[in-house]
Amino acid sequence: MNSTPLRQRSTPLLPGLLAAAAAVLPAYLLHRFLPGLPMLTAAVVLGLLAGNLPWISRAVAGPLKPGLSTAARTLMRAGIVLLGLKVSLVDIAGLGGPALLLIVVLVAVAFAGTYWVCRAFRLPGEEPLLIASGFSICGVSAVGAMAAARRVRHEDTVVPIALVTLCGTLAIGALPLLASLLDLPAETFGIWAGASVHDVGQVVATAQTAGTAALAAAVVVKLARVVLLAPLAAGAGLLARRTARGQDAPGKLPPLVPLFVLGFLALIAVRTTGVLPDSVLTAAAAVQEVLFTAALFALGAGVRFRMLFVSGARALAAALVSWFLIGALGLALAVLLTR
User: Fold this and answer.
1) Residue 46 — φ and ψ, nearest 5°?
2) pTM for this predicted structure
3) Euclidean distance between the first and final Cα of the chain, in Å?
4) Torsion on CA atoms 283, 284, 287, 292, rounded to nearest 10
């Protein structure tokens, strides 16, 4: 008796979900054809085109919209949960107490500095908070987690996500060039990449240019930053609850910690135990990238170009200033840890 209402609810979602899933293949092919273009960046670009080209945008704004909105929200959160399987607390603890403290200080200063820069450029709404989260911690994942904790509309996350992917992509080419000019040792370069590049995949693409020693150092430093996603989301959730309580007629209070962040922490615990074989971890990483790709296509499809022009130029300038800031902070950390 309950199957008919269920079908009525699920059928409107299906076309948009299928469209988001179908976008994974062209995003992958673009990445393979243009290796310098990350798959996630390709997904955002394809989504923006789908949402703004006349012969496609009508379907995106019509029958595809419910499923795309669900994909942008739900698949992003599922990808963040799977990100936990990349983090082993044993590996992070191997950095030692002083190094971990310096990484926490780096993230705090990068977050505060980026937030201040974005406010100085008068970016609207929650953009300063989202950009600061993405730049200081783990790119797209941090933007998604902060947006969920603050109950930001997924349409309002497209500019921060676009800037995070843009600057992370620039780092893949710029940091190896600068490291060569500065004649940095491999380990120093790896720590610099792990401390200043945004997404995990971008860190790997950047650091591997200097060999396995650089890659190993980069990944462990980056994952130490990723762990800070949980306290960041918890702090944002607590602030959101306090704000809701202060309203005259508050509705349901937002969760202190979003459920998907608890899932992220649970999978960190599972990874730390070492019980999962490498084949499972590799498959989970591939699934995570597919989920993020579909989510970012759906996110881009919900944005109109005129929305980007509201703060586009100022946001780009703020992002580039912030990129230089976190790059300088990351280089300082790398020199301190290897001198």
Assistant:
1) -65, -40
2) 0.81
3) 70
4) -140
On average, the pLDDT of the chain sits at 85
- How far apart are alpha carbons 218 and 197 in whole angstroms? 9
pLDDT value for 29: 95
Helix and strand counts by DSSP (H, E) for the chain: 20, 0
Please report, for residues 100, 147, 322, the alpha-carbon distance to residue 127 in angstroms, rounded to integers and kept in the order given: 28, 10, 13
Looking at the chain, how many residues does it have? Answer: 339
pLDDT attached to residue 308: 63
* Ranges of the chain with pLDDT below 50: 1, 3-4, 6, 8, 249
Q: Could you tell me which of 176, 256, 272, 268 has the C-alpha nearest to residue 226?
A: 268
